[in-house]
Amino acid sequence: MIQGTGSGVGKSLIVAGLCRIFRDRGVNVAPFKAQNMALNSFITKEGGEIGRAQALQAEAAGIEPSVDMNPILLKASGESSCQMIMNGRVHSNMKATEYYSFKKEAWRAVTEAYESLSRKHDLIIIEGAGSPAEINLCKDEVVNMRVARHTGAPVILIGDIDKGGVFASFYGTVGLLNGDADYIKAFIINKFRGDMEILMPGLKMIYEKTNIPVIGVIPYLGDLGLHEEDGIPIERINGARGKGERVTKIKIVVIRLRYISNFTDFDPFLYEPDVDLVYSLREGDIENADLLIIPGSKNTVEDLLFLRENGIEDSIRRAIKKDIPLIGVCGGYQMIGKKILDPFGVESNHKVVRGFEFLGIETTLKKTKITSQVEATLVKNSELRVQSENTLKGYEIHMGVSKGETGLFRLKRISSNSSLVTRHSSLIMDGSSKGNVWGTYIHGIFDNDLFRRELLNSIREKKGLRLIGKVVDYSRLREDALNKWSGIIRKNIDMKFIEELLKS
Question: Average pLDDT for residues 441-460, to the nearest whole number?
Answer without folding.
Answer: 96
